[in-house]
Amino acid sequence: MRGLLTLKELQTEKIVELIKYALKLKKGFKISYPDKKMATLFFENSTRTHYSFECALVNLGIKVIDVNVRESSVQKGETLYDTVRTLEALGIDGVIIRHQQDEYYKQLSGIKIPIFNAGDGKGSHPTQSLLDLMTIYEEFGKFEGLKCAIVGDISHSRVAHTNVEIMKRLGMDVYISGPEEFNDHCATWISFDEAIKTCDIIMMLRVQFERHEAKMQMTKEEYHEKYGLTAKRVSEMKENAIIMHPAPINRGVEIADEVAECEKSRIYKQMTNGVYIRMAVISDTLDGNL
Fold this sequence. Notes:
Layout: E1 3-4, H1 12-26, E2 37-42, H2 48-59, E3 63-67, H3 80-89, E4 95-99, E5 115-120, H4 126-140, E6 147-151, H5 158-169, E7 173-177, E8 188-189, H6 192-198, E9 201-204, H7 220-227, H8 231-235, E10 242-244, H9 267-286
Helix pairs in contact: 1-4, 1-9, 2-9, 4-5, 4-9
């Protein structure tokens, strides 16, 4: 299937190539596909990913067809396959999909137009990981030997699961931290205090309250006290260390309000980079390279 579903299918050399292409686009390189049209199909709420993809399409001169799932035949029981097959039959040149089901794309065997995974359940979020990597590369100029701690709701995070796998492949030392109840053992566990003092990248995760079947075992205030990135903890970080977060941010829970846009924060730079990395992925696919 063409497009981008997971990063596991890509060689590390290809990932670095996409990052460098995105940086080239960010510096002003222009490319356009005015005869193309693509659809966005979001079964979960989204701001950054949804509209970042739309901005990427607009920047590439591609017509955007934003499918309103709540007003589509999905509400009549239409399958994901039939929805996408219909868009293909209407002449759409590619579909960007976010879905609550893990590996939803396995239902789309036989679809010939490119599919771009904008997040599947607790599985993968490949373009989020690419924009994270782009931000890190832009900051440090390398991956090898960097230490990254991913902190918070690991078990529910497709961002964490995608990043852990690819960061290790790129030669980074990856750690996870946060409440033990969120530990799914996808990487080496580290105490939050040790992570703050020793890591080059502190990547905070949103506590995904909407995915918890049971209530969290502590209040939001207790979470912030134990695992929140406060101004005091920021003062203990390494001199050149940076703060990242896939957003949306729970201010006052996993990150203090005054920290979200502090000198070490690269959170809004991540959002900016998301447009360019998605432009790179879409362009590379339309040029027949993905």
